[in-house]
Predict the structure of tRNA-guanine(15) transglycosylase.
Amino acid sequence: MSIQFEVMHKDIAGRVGRLTVGDKRIRTPALLPVVNPHIQIVPPGEMAAMGIEGLITNAYIFSKSADFREEALSRGLHNLLGFDGLIMTDSGSFQLSVYGSVDTTNETTLAFQRDIGSDIWVPLDIPTHPDAPRETVESELAITMERLREAREIFGDDAPIAGPVQGGIHADLRETAGREVSNLGFSFCPVGAVVPLLEGYRYRELVHSVLAAKKGLSSGACVHLFGAGHPSMFALAAAMGCDIFDSAAYALYAREGRYITPSGTLKLAEMAELPCPCAVCRSHTADELRASDQKERLLATHNLAVTQAEISRVRLSIQEGTLWELVDERCRSHPRLLDGYRELLKAGDLLERSDRATKRRFFYRGDESCQRTEVIRFQRMIPRIALSSKALILCGGPEPQDFEEVLELRPPFGAVPRELSETFPIGQNEVPAWDDAMLASAFTGVDALLAANPETEVTFSASPDLVHHIKKRFPDAVVIS
């Protein structure tokens, strides 16, 4: 029952795909809600009715439970939980990260996951805290890798075993771990021990760590970001190439009276309105929800509905080629998310290799848009443009008739031959009035064009407000207005 992953659509490093394990198949990106058998606020059957195709539960809890251990072994997880979709089980690594030790072994927990009918099994990896000393990270990473090798040797290459990627916040260790995990043949690869980064809003370090792991992993691996469950960061994580998310936030937040939105979390006690279109919010006022004896269950249902809706929104944006716009929108909801966005943009050269060639549109949303993959790709292709002996670059000025070759300045990309005016991204972009960042990016493109055509005599025809900018940037150029 091997794990197979098929990519259907791409945008940035994000993928819409199909994850198949045996007779179970789910669409990705996907959310796997965490289900605790002792505390089922939203029953798995109700989750399925909401469009949830997979969930994750904890095999260690089942194995130590007097109430559920034998029942899980005799009936199987799917029957016990009343859920026909994909079920993934954690090994006890979460308890290991919280309590420091667990009463099980790698082989024991994997065998138990097999015996209760789990679809995806997780070895007993070591979730090293991001702030641990490098020596500790290296030592515990070595144990994790040894346990992954042990899992393959005992259960075989076809067993549906996940290959966690550890390494803390050390990029070299994450990349090396990713490469070794892929070399061992794992096709489902969780990036582990990132919950402390998420809880601390350390999104810049999260991006740094995930991208490092992605460098080492096979491009065909399905990537699971362990413990990521707030919808505000799904777009950012998907843009890095994460395919699966899991979290108990929908239930934990409900217990604390916290109301999830796509851009953050609100306190129900302080809300005058319920701004969501889900069934819970349309059938209750804020006062009624606060007063309900089913408040926790209803709030958890809302939280899960909002989270699932954001997953659908991310999938749609990938298919439409508008993931950058969604990332930009979501990451401006919190300054630390904006840190993560800017860290992602620093990896533009790497992301450009994964990005699709054409998209529905390019919307300029501020300085950050100048670093997007579409701009990088276009400027990389500029040296292919061969100019004649004389060329005119229109920058809002008049067009003399004595030039056989005319290009147009199209910030933030560069100078574009008219023959390319209908091609992506030139013909499918929307930009506001030119700003300094746009012009600086376009002038970088012009630099590349001039360097590729040193024998061409280039004239700029500029509007009065641009003459100074062009003369300052290209002091030897001929400028008319």
